[in-house]
Specification:
Elements lengths: L1 H19 L25 H5 L3 H5 L7 H4 L7 E5 L5 H10 L4 E6 L2 H14 L4 E5 L12 E7 L8 H11 E14 L5 H4 L2 H5 L6 E2 H11 L2 E10 L2 H10 L4 H8 L3 E9 L14
Parallel strand pairs: 1-2, 1-4, 2-3, 4-5, 5-6
Antiparallel strand pairs: 5-8, 7-8
Helix pairs in contact: 1-6, 7-10, 11-12
């Protein structure tokens, strides 16, 4: 897992530096948004982007808009796993209001520095950015009402640990509401083995059924997967070729199999379920 973490940290650190230097980033870093792969394109509406610092928007590397679908309520405490430049944390902070709080968790120093600068520009008082990994969340048990994440859990080499940690820090009755890339069908091993595509949000994606099984094993209930985008082969051509794969050969084998989805789950209310063994 450390090799994956190192690759992710290096790539997203470079993306943060690009944004800080006045350039825009892309999922995996290194490209202008206009030439970005389809996973990160057109995720936020104009009104959301207009209310945020430009650098928070430019550093958005996700695959969805979890804050728009998480049904956040005033006064709630929210945690964003892999918060990057802070766009979803800042949007969440506005939704939960001054009586609520939004945490952002990231392991990359460059992204944390960018996010904290964006927090200052936005004047957000109910925001706190934490350094750490999503496999070891630096918060006590039963701390947050909602966990969001935007195309980050798929980057982890230990997703079981991530989901158990998410379960641990959620309050009883709390909910998981994340955007992520999932797979429907078989995918070539060449894609699975490519670190470049792993960092670019694809190769680490779980099968839809496997994602649900892992959530259940971690202790979650009321699990749902709602597709938000289906990626076609022509959309992925640029990304495949950047990873050194033959798009004409690999493309037809992945056509329509990668989807962005909004994944919901809930931690049982107090007294309704025992803590799962993976979290002990």
């Amino acid at each position: 897992m450390s090799n994956i973490q190192d690759a992710v940290k290096k790539k997203y650190g470079a993306a943060a530096k690009q944004v800080a230097a006045g350039k825009t980033a892309c999922c995996g870093g290194g490209a202008e948004l206009s030439g970005c792969d389809p996973i990160t394109r057109n995720l936020y509406d104009a009104s959301e982007k207009a209310a945020l610092p430009a650098d928070a928007v430019a550093a958005s590397l996700g695959c969805g808009n979890p804050t728009a679908l998480a049904q956040l309520q005033p006064g709630e405490t929210v945690l964003d796993l892999g918060s990057g430049g802070g766009i979803d944390v800042l949007l969440s902070a506005r939704r939960v209001g001054p009586t609520g709080k939004a945490y952002g968790l990231d392991m990359t120093d460059e992204m944390l520095a960018l996010a904290r600068e964006n927090q200052k520009k936005a004047g957000a008082q109910n925001v706190e950015f934490l350094k750490g990994t999503i496999e070891n969340i630096p918060l006590p048990d039963n701390t947050v009402d909602v966990i969001i994440s935007n195309c980050v859990i798929n980057l982890s080499g230990d997703k079981d640990r991530v989901l158990c940690e998410a379960f641990r820090v959620l309050k009883p009755g709390g909910r998981l509401a994340v955007s992520d890339v999932v797979i429907r069908g078989e995918v070539p091993s060449s894609v699975r083995k490519s670190m470049e595509l792993w960092v670019g949000c694809i190769a680490g994606a779980l099968q839809e059924s496997e994602y649900c099984q892992k959530l259940t094993a971690a202790g979650f209930e009321s699990i749902g997967v709602e597709p938000t985008r289906v990626y076609k082969v022509e959309e992925a051509r640029e990304l495949l070729e950047a990873a050194g794969l033959n798009a004409d050969t690999v493309g037809p084998q992945i056509d329509g199999k990668f989807i962005s989805a909004f994944i919901r789950a809930r931690k049982p209310a107090a007294g309704s379920s025992d803590k799962p063994s993976c979290c002990n």
